[in-house]
Amino acid sequence: MNGVTAVGNGAGVEVYSTVSESVNASLPATTMLTPQRDGTFAVYFYIAQVDTGAGCSGIAQVSVNLIYSDPFSGAAQPFTFVVPLSASGGPSPSGALRLSPDNISVANVAAGSMVFRARGGTNISYSTTYTPGGCSKQPRYQVAPLLLWF
After folding, report:
1. Domain parsing of the chain, residue ranges
2. CA atoms of 32 and 116, how far apart (whole Å)
3. 65-78 pLDDT, tens per residue?
4. Per-residue three-class SS string for 43-106
5. Most buried of 22, 53, 88, 121 (most Cβ within 10 A)?
6. Third-level CATH fold of 13-149
7. What is the number of other CB atoms lying within 10 angstroms of the CB of residue 69?
8. Model's pTM, two decimal places?
C-alpha cells in the first residue's frame, strides 16, 4: 500500500469477539486465546452501563484487566494490565468507568485498547474489577472485547 511492503501478514485476524453477560460484579478471567507461538496482538474493549443502580450512596465503577505472558520478560507469572479507558469526557483518571446511579449517558460508555506481545502456549485473558457504589441495587455493565492477531 502506498509503496510500502507489509511485514508479516499485513493485517490483523479477529480471533476473539464474544460479548460478556450483563453483570454487577467482577468478571473472572476469561480466556480469549492460547496461541501456539509468540505473536503480536491488539485488543480492544468496549464497555457500557446497562442499567442504573438504586439507593446509591456512592458511585460504582468497573475497570478492565488484560492478563497475558510477555515473551521478552523473564517473569514467571502472567502480567495483569489495567487497560486505560476513555469515555466521552476523555481518559479516565483512574482507568475505570464510573457507573451512574441515575441517568445513563455517553459518559457511562468507554473504550480502551493496547498492542502487546504474548508468549506462545500461554493464555491471553481478560477480567474486570467491579467496585460497588453502596447501592441497594448495583448498576450492571457489559463488555465487548475484540482480540486481533498480527
Report:
1. 13-149
2. 14
3. 999 999 998 888 89
4. EEEEEEECCCCECCCCCEEEEEEEEECCCCCCCCCCEEEECCCEECCEECCCCCEEECCCCCCH
5. 53
6. Jelly Rolls (2.60.120)
7. 19
8. 0.89
